[in-house]
Amino acid sequence: MGREGISHEYQDIRSEAACGEQLPSIEVTGQVMARVRGLERVQNRGTVRFGNKTAATLGMLILLLMITVTAYAASEYIQIRNKAGAVKVQHFAPDLKPKGVAAYYEYEWKLMDFAKPGEQIAFYFRGEPIPEGGSPLQFAYKEQRITEYSAFLEQMNRKNSPVILPETAGGYAFKYGTMHPRYPTKSERDSSPFYRQILSELINEAKQDQKRNLFMKVVPWTEAGGVQAKYTRQGAFIDLSATLLHGGDVQVYQEPGNKPEKLKVEGRDIVYNYVDRPDVKPGFSYHYLTWYNEVQDAYYMLTTYGDRILTKEQLLKLAGELMKGGL
Length: 327
Known about the structure:
By secondary structure, the chain is α+β, with helices and mostly antiparallel strands.
């Protein structure tokens, strides 16, 4: 919601391929691109590219997708609409995806070193181009993993999340959960005395210190932008995430090597994605599901990995169970 962002797409995914738990968080999130946008919501430059929301460095970035490129026009790509007929999920060709601003990677580590887990950082980077409709006041978040479900449940309630992820999923037990904040929109930053004061303080600090360009401050947050939970059972893992759209929509940039199918589960549209990535290592592939919950205005992603990966049928069955449970 206010900052342009790209995930860690330049990480060495080949080295991560040896670690079953680590790889999907890179393959499904860091190596792919999607965007959530809404009225007035301009891209944030954090760990993922959004126009409406920005997920933090945590695995919450899982809403990012890669879907096969086809020869069809963008209007013929996969869409999911709400009951009013408005498009909430739209797939596009990869050449339409926005270009990232590489400068963020040069100082991201400084933001993460500055903050404690669970903290949101407001920052100003002197001399950095501001995207059209953007703001010099930007935001980042340092992931906090919550390993006790009771504490995770309390955090979801405290941060006003309309989504409450379950303690178990298909017989898999909760391992840890993460959240990320809803960043303020441009209009909120422009109109709020609180955010105007923060930007003024950071700019004044920059005027007094010409030796550095990055100026930052920890600011509180009270509303969730998304939630994610990891579940485990005997070396197998499930990742479940929900990105809260707050009236925005999801733009998915389709890439080669993926095979999407639009299906129905519990009467709702769901997209099954099979991804073939021999460039990671010979025979490497994975699959995952995405769907939209209109009541919560949330975009879900479900993936499986580890020693025992669920089949397509098992994954769809689990999605149906989660939908019956309110997701």
